[in-house]
Amino acid sequence: MKKLATFTIALLFAAGSALAQSNDATITQTGDDHDGSIEQVGSSNISSISQDGSDADASAYQDGNSNEALQTQEAYSLVGSSSAAATIEQIGDNNSAIQEQYALGAVFAVGSVVAVIEQAGSGNEATQVQNALGAFFAGASADAEIVQTGSGNEATQHQEAVAALIGSSSADAAISQIGDDNVATQMQGTLGILGVSNVAASIDQDGSGNEAGQVQEGSDLTATILQTGLSNEASQFQLGSGIDSEITQTGDLNMATITQQSSFSSAVVTQTGHSNTASVSQN
Predict the structure, then answer these.
(1) What whole-number distance in Å separates Cα of residue 6 and Cα of residue 196?
(2) Would you list the domain boundaries of the chain?
(3) pLDDT, tens digit, 9 for 90 and up, residues 128-139
(4) pTM for the full predicted model
(5) For residue 1, is pLDDT > 60?
(6) Which of 57, 56, 17, 20 is nearest to 39 (CA)?
């Protein structure tokens, strides 16, 4: 299956390069130990990879403008371990990258998913959605990373970590943006039913006119925002126990807001520059 998927895409890519742009490439795989890879050069191309099973690996590379890449993975295991990894790399402007992953571990099993999006250019959009469920002495984890270089980019991460019946789950999200007028948003939710759920989020922005927002709910949560430049805005909302939050801003006209609603919480705001505003509310 691995050789067939790679060879099929190679033919599609070769034919598209010889004729014109605006090519569509699709890989669909079901079962275990799959590897799907798509490479496209040009504009207005569409890449789609769908994998259902365990130990799957998906990668997409696009060089051009107005391209779209979509990856969907489901990693599940009842006994043993299951994993899925997805990578999207785009070079150009006005590109879109979407990754959706689901990890399930049950009955002494471990399910894990890893998603990475790298974009170089302006006006790009990156979205990652992950769900991790661990139940019956099992574990599940989700790791997401978005790296964007350029201006006017948008990055969004949405993670859900659920632990039930002596299970454990964790979610880790990271966004790094270098450039101006970028927007970063992270949303994380946890649920523990006789289990343990943990999430961590971090945003690092270097440039001017950037905006960052984080929303977390659950226990043992950590949120970090680092900004360097002018006219930056940072906002964090946390609900649960054992929460830790930190905002660091360097530049002018910055605004930072932290809201925490639980005990055992901690909030740190550091600002350097002029006309900065910081607001911290704890309940």
Answers:
(1) 39
(2) 2-206
(3) 999 877 767 767
(4) 0.84
(5) no
(6) 17
